[in-house]
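Posting for a labmate who doesn't have an account.
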Amino acid sequence: MKNVLWSHFLFGVILAVPETSSGQGLPLANPVEVGMSADGLSRIDQVIQNFIGKKELAGAVTIVARRGKVVQFKSYGMRDIAAQREMRKDTIFRIYSMTKAVVSVAAMRLVEEGILELDVPASKYVPALGRMKFKGKDPQREMTLRDLLRHTAGLPNNVSTDRALRRAGHPSLAESTLEEMMDRLDSVPLIYEPGKGWYYSFAADVVARLVEIGSKKPLDQALSELVFEPLGMVDTGFHVPKEKLDRFAVAYGNGLKPIIGPQPGTSGPFTFEKPPKFLSGGGGLVSTASDYMRFCLMLTGGGEFGGKRLLNKETVEMMLADQLPEGVGEISRPPKGRGFGLGFAVRIRKTDRSPIGESEWLGGLGTEFFISPDHELAVITLSNQSPMRQIKSVVRPVVYDAIREEKDQAENGQARDHFLVIDSRIIESKENARLMPGTVTKCPDNPLFVEDKSWEPRYDNMYPNVIYDEEDKLYKCWYSPFIIDQRTTARPVAQRNPKATDYMTAKPAGREEAMLYATSRDGISWQKPQLGIVEFEGSKKNNILCRGAGGAGVIKDQRDPDPQRRYKAFYCTDSGYRMRYSPDGLRWGKEVALPGVGESDTHANMIWAPGL
């Protein structure tokens, strides 16, 4: 008797408000008009209020746009607690490293105009770059603008750069212009061969100098002409003018104590009340939610916003695609699964709710953004809090959950003509629908999969759980055979029949269950990936997720605001029921005991019951 997972089909034929307050001059839409749920987006309120209620944030602004139109734009809490000033949509924030994306766009505009070149030695523009050494010797090749944009140039970070310059007797970064510091870079050693690694570095400030050289203007003027003015970014710059200081968010530290933010690109406090000498392309800008959304909408619009084209569509696609050289792999900064484009981190592997192709970055005092070209989606979360609270990681799943394409298709009559493994017991309503049972055919494609691996010896036990993951467009199966079962492995195959032998009293009787994983694109053809997670008999080339967890029921829980608990496995042990959590359904945390739930021998399952 082989343990199998059969396919049963049932066929069903279906006969079947933007915010009223100001959008700061941005195009607006009702969420439903762009395939989103207003109720789903309203969950952002609870996420932000939770941070504020726990005194982890004084206030914040969030803004969401899809298909070129804003569908959520709200302010929360206070921008100045002592003065009792509420957060406003037009509050000005220190955006720090979100500056890098803006400078990258300016550089690529100059590339399109033929003024700068991506793949020639950058020493063509800044000669000192050609004199930089790696371990005291000339590098195998010089860095290029492409290297600078993707952080593969071999440069150290700003702190190390500043320290090396001062050690060589030069002024600090804070006391220098971009032109002055670039002429001294041969005093700074490279930390790896250009193109041979990835390190988040001083490179964006070198890009900023190239923008100055290409435009023949100081960086502030260059960005105004190349980016801010065409996009209507009226509140973005390197300082906050006196007449706008009342809109400037107070920065807070732990315990919501006011702090003065650090000077961009270097150390020491900085008030942003006057222009700095060092115009940092890596982190010098202040901006607002509406200004930065204009920038993001230009990117999701393929280089165009408000009837003005800044970049060609092909250039934007290149910037938002992984550009890391072969062999570099993923970037070292969390979260995992990211490469790097020309100015943006890019998702290249599924590790959480983010789809492959999503681009993003952040600023170190609590500003974050992400865009998904495939979803035509742009999301910005702004606060000024140290340490930053990673709002984006909690808002992100809420936003993606609010996309309702499948429901839109059904409402528009574009119905699916069949469904896999459902029947009338779990159909909420059959109004305007007809359910017809399909047939199960015995053919070479059945059984769908069997225990055909050396770590799958047990033939009468599987406990499968199958879901269809709309996000990944993938059927996923977690199953729990015995990976060790001496009663089976010690008995010849022809005798492995519990009905014909005294199987349960057979010796030896050692056994161990585990949770395994398989996937399918169509629900028929299944693969058992080599995950490299759990070692079994000296090798990790298997599809084992964790040992134990026998008979586990697994769900993907989009309602939990904690992305580390996106997947839940519920199962029984000899001492009672347990739960494990996972961000991706593959890497599971430690067991959590469930007090009050007793022992049993069962195949566990979970569902979310909205009515309860």
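Reply:
Got it, the structure tokens are right above this. Residues 115 and 214 are 6 Å apart (CA to CA).
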